[in-house]
Every structure is written in structure tokens, then in C-alpha cells.
Write a structure and sequence with these properties.
single chain, alpha+beta, Arc Repressor Mutant, subunit A, 4 helices, globular, OmpR/PhoB-type domain-containing protein, DNA binding, OmpR/PhoB-type_DNA-bd, WH-like_DNA-bd_sf
């Protein structure tokens, strides 16, 4: 029996490869306790030093300064529905003409620019829509886990 090591729950654990099994990539294999394998690469990277871009699946995506502020605010409240009013108060605090359609417009621009960088296909479109969610009548949610998000 051969052993391979995987990173799981921030600890290294071994799993045994049975004779006759083909080579299986680490991301396709789970340990015997059936808990998920932790991805080593973040899906979304945000750098406070570079407010003109983000990194999504290792691809650079250009972003406006207002868009960056919105994304950073959503990242601070990831996996929460952030109300339109909270976003307007935080990001557009000095703009009395700001309305929720501006927020939605920025989210659609995020999606489009990310898909331009990573490629337009059905899987990518669904992944991006699932991460950048517009909740009708309520607000916006950045649906991403701690492991998938890196802020520095």
C-alpha cells in the first residue's frame, strides 16, 4: 500500500492507495473520515495595497476604486446578506443620488469582468453567480468561505 498526504482541517493526514487504484489527484480524494479536502488555493484574493484589481482563480481582474470598496465591504461580511441601505451608507455615504441599482450594476460588472478573465462557460457562470449573489429586495451577499477568501 502506498501512502499519500493531504492537507485536511489544517493538518496533514495520510490516506492509503489500494493496489490497482489509478493515480488520483489530491483534490479528488477524501480521507476515510469523509470530511472534505481543504483547497490550498483561494478563489478570491483581495489586496488592500492594490485597489485597482482582484485575483479570482489566479486570474487578475481589473476593478474600479468604488467597486473595490464594495467588494472589500462585502468580504468583511461574507456569507451574510448585506442590505442595500447598509451598502449605500458605507460606500456611497456622500452621494445623495445613490440608489440600489448602482450596487446591482457593480455586482454585474464584477461577474462580467471575472468571466472575461476566467472564461465564459456554464460552470464558471454558475460559480460566479453563486459567489456574488443579489438577493432581490434585500441586498447582496458574497457567498464564499474563509478558505476561499484571502484578504491582505
Amino acid at each position: 500500500l502506498k501512502e499519500k498526504w493531504i492537507v485536511q482541517d489544517k493538518q496533514l493526514k495520510a490516506f492509503k492507495k489500494m493496489p490497482g487504484e489509478g493515480d488520483i489527484s489530491i483534490s479528488e480524494r477524501q480521507s476515510t473520515d469523509a470530511s472534505p479536502v481543504v483547497s490550498l488555493e483561494p478563489v478570491l484574493e483581495i489586496s488592500q495595497r492594490r485597489s485597482d484589481r482582484i485575483i479570482f482563480l489566479r486570474k487578475e481582474v481589473k476593478i474600479t476604486s468604488r467597486g473595490f470598496s464594495l467588494l472589500y465591504f462585502l468580504a468583511q461580511h461574507k456569507q451574510e446578506v448585506v442590505s442595500y441601505n447598509s451598502i449605500l451608507d458605507e460606500i456611497w455615504e456622500d452621494d445623495e443620488d445613490a440608489i440600489y441599482t448602482r450596487i446591482i450594476s457593480h455586482v454585474y460588472k464584477f461577474r462580467r469582468n471575472i468571466l472575461d478573465a476566467i472564461g465564459h462557460n456554464e460552470d464558471n457562470t454558475e460559480k460566479v453567480k453563486d459567489i456574488f449573489k443579489v438577493i432581490s429586495g434585500r441586498g447582496v451577499m458574497l457567498n464564499i468561505s474563509d478558505e476561499e477568501l484571502q484578504i491582505n
